[in-house]
Every structure is written in C-alpha cells, then in structure tokens.
Write a structure and sequence with these properties.
mainly alpha; 81% helix; 0% strand
C-alpha cells in the first residue's frame, strides 16, 4: 500500500487537485504550509536581485531623464545655447551654430535616439516587476485562503467533537433519567 506524502494530502484536501495538476506557485504555497514557513516576499527586492547591470543602468537613466531636474537643466542648456549662438558669439563673428541651430538639432536627435530605447528598456523592466509582484501577491493570497480553510476545518472538527461530547452527555443523562 503506497503512502501519500503530506504535500499530496494537502493538495487533495485544500485544493482538490492531485499533485501532478499543481502549478509552481501552488506547489510553493503548499510546501510553505507544510514546512510552516512564510511565503511573503518583497517583489522590488527580488527584482533588484535578478537585475542585470544593463537593466539597472536603464532604470537610472530613465529616472534621471524623467525628472524635473533634468527637464529644467536641459531647458537651461538649450536656451543658453540659443542665446550664446544668436546674440553673444554673433557679435564677435564666432557663432559655431547660428540660427536655425542645425548642430543643436543633430545633438537633440541623437539624445532622443539614444534615450528612447533606454527608457523603453526601463519600462519593460517595470512591467516585469509588476508581473513578479502580481505572482507574489497570488502566492500570498492563495496561502492566506488555504490557511483560512485549514482553520475553518479545524474549528468545524472541534465544534463537531464538542457536539458529539454534549450529545453523549445528554444521552447518558436521558438513560440515567429513564432508568431511575
């Protein structure tokens, strides 16, 4: 006669599935229940641990490029460039990029061409973080739901045992009253 493991028993009893039909998250949750360990993990820390150097770099570039400090500083540089080439250096005949600022346009196009894919990489990474967080939330919610079910079953068994004991006492009292 084959004995079933505690994991097999938990799988059948709590999820109503044989162990072969469980997905990875359900297996981890049941293993955590069986081992008595917690299942909660921080998605941000887990994603940061798994991040490559390029992913971390793209996050930093996106954080800087998407900040008000960058926008204000970049605007100041652009206005300074235009004033320098339109007024100041033009008076001395040394404007290296006079109006219509063709060199500035080239630089801005280059920055945009480099910055856009880096920001997209950061957005993809954020999307992956969100998926990981959803997966961890699912595991935590499943664990909580299964723990509530286990407590519910335990309370049901205690109540039934208590009712059986009360019923036995009532039967005993009824027998002693009818025998007297």
């Amino acid at each position: 006669m084959a004995t079933s493991s505690p994991l097999d028993d938990l799988s059948q009893r709590l999820l109503g599935k044989p162990p072969g039909e469980l997905d990875d998250a359900q297996r981890r949750v049941l293993a955590g229940i069986e081992a008595g360990t917690t299942v909660s993990r921080d998605a941000a820390n887990l994603a940061d641990e798994r991040a490559t150097v390029g992913e971390r770099l793209s996050d930093r570039v996106a954080a800087v490029g998407g900040s008000w400090g960058f926008i204000i500083a970049f605007t100041a540089v652009l206005v300074g460039w235009m004033i320098l080439n339109s007024d100041i250096l033009t008076q001395f005949g040394r404007a290296f990029d006079p109006y219509p600022y063709i060199f500035l346009n080239l630089l801005l196009s280059t920055v945009a061409a480099i910055q856009a894919p880096i920001i997209m990489m950061s957005q993809n990474r954020q999307s992956a973080k969100d998926r990981l967080a959803a997966s961890l939330d699912y595991e935590t919610n499943l664990r909580a739901e299964l723990d509530i079910l286990r407590v519910h079953h335990k309370i049901d068994h205690l109540v039934l045992a208590r009712l059986d004991a009360i019923e036995a006492k009532i039967d005993g009292l009824a027998k002693s009253a009818s025998g007297a």
